[in-house]
Task: inverse folding
């Protein structure tokens, strides 16, 4: 509600004005402002992973508490899973529910938690797993991190493929068309497809620990700059072209994007989950169409508008 109140007080760019109510365009709005930073009202001790589901819920894995929390759009907190030792990664499936990866030296497991709260061991893994993803049809992807092997398991738990890569694997994230992108020890990225083929797909900084797929269709990695400060880097075709995508709060251990590209950060040092919001959708008052609005500190200062309209 406060966001809409704020928008009415902003002088909108001329490009956003709808002169003809019957036939009008909806140009994106950019407002000169810093992003909105807020702490999620949840007490955590060691948050090791965070994801935002397709329904807009935020799921947080707390390694010390051995629990997975859900925070919905109304900031209501509930517990999704309990007694989950060695928590490592989270993934969500629209059809099959929440998937939790636990990992320890030499073994791991994938736990499936349904929408009704039923918690069961889905996979037992005889290796140290690295990374977790669930595609649109319910296939589960993970890797034997030390051996450099990517595995895909069907929704029934049967292994469907195994692809060997050239290096040990640190993480993986869901790509496009049912593929996954694997992060190798050197910072090299490799895309693995369901037909058991794999192709090099770029680089992130050496020392990157986690991967995420941005909703605009590119891969980012969680890394540190030369001063040791946390940042996101955008994957590039050449390792010398990798660039900083966003600065992060020091101590960030995991990040998640919502469908608009806003960030949620897990930080064990601060024992906090933090949202960084710079992308919004506001309804056109004439037709109700969602109009993209971005807060950017680099945007030109707006001029006083003679009227406030779309």
Result:
């Amino acid at each position: 509600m406060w966001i809409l109140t704020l928008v009415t007080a902003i002088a909108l760019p001329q490009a956003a004005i709808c002169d003809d109510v019957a036939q009008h365009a909806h140009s994106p709005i950019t407002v000169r402002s810093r992003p909105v930073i807020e702490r999620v009202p949840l007490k955590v001790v060691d948050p090791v992973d965070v994801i935002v589901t397709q329904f807009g819920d935020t799921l947080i894995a707390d390694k010390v508490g051995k629990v997975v929390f859900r925070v919905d759009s109304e900031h209501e907190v509930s517990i999704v899973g309990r007694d989950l030792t060695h928590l490592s990664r989270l993934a969500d499936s629209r059809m099959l529910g929440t998937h939790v990866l636990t990992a320890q030296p030499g073994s791991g497991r994938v736990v499936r938690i349904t929408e009704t709260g039923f918690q069961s061991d889905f996979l037992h893994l005889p290796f140290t797993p690295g990374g977790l993803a669930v595609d649109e049809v319910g296939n589960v992807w993970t890797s034997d991190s030390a051996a450099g092997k990517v595995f895909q398991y069907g929704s029934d738990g049967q292994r469907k493929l195994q692809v060997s890569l050239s290096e040990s694997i640190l993480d993986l994230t869901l790509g496009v068309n049912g593929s996954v992108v694997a992060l190798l020890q050197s910072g090299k990225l490799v895309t693995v497809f369901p037909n058991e083929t794999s192709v090099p797909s770029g680089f992130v900084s050496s020392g990157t620990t986690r991967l995420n797929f941005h909703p605009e269709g590119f891969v980012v990695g969680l890394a540190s700059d030369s001063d040791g400060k946390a940042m996101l880097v955008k994957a590039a075709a050449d390792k010398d072209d990798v660039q900083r995508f966003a600065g992060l709060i020091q101590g960030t251990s995991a990040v998640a994007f919502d469908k608009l590209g806003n960030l949620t950060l897990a930080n064990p040092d601060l024992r906090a989950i933090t949202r960084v919001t710079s992308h919004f959708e506001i309804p056109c008052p004439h037709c109700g169409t969602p109009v993209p609005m971005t807060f950017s500190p680099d945007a030109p200062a707006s001029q006083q508008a003679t009227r406030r309209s779309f």
